[in-house]
């Protein structure tokens, strides 16, 4: 009786810990994906800006 309760309790705690870890990993993964998307947008903007500056310089030169 006591042992089975203790074992069940341990098993429940283990499951709870695993569930928490999974949720945490999923959240981190989403955060990383969000960061990646933001980073690519920033890089794209920077590239466009450089191209615009280059075009402006060429326009001035000619």
From TrEMBL:
Domain of life, source organism: Eukaryota
Ranges for region Disordered: 18-62
Regions of compositional bias (Low complexity) in chain numbering: 33-50
Biased composition (Polar residues): 18-30, 51-62
Protein name, UniProt field: Uncharacterized protein
UniProt source species: Sphaeroforma arctica JP610
Lineage: Eukaryota, Ichthyosporea, Ichthyophonida, Sphaeroforma
């Amino acid at each position: 009786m006591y042992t089975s309760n203790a074992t069940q309790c341990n098993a429940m705690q283990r499951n709870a810990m695993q569930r928490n870890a999974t949720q945490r990993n999923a959240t981190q993964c989403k955060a990383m994906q969000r960061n990646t998307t933001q980073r690519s947008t920033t890089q794209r903007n920077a590239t466009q800006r450089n191209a615009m500056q280059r075009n402006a310089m060429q326009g001035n030169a000619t």
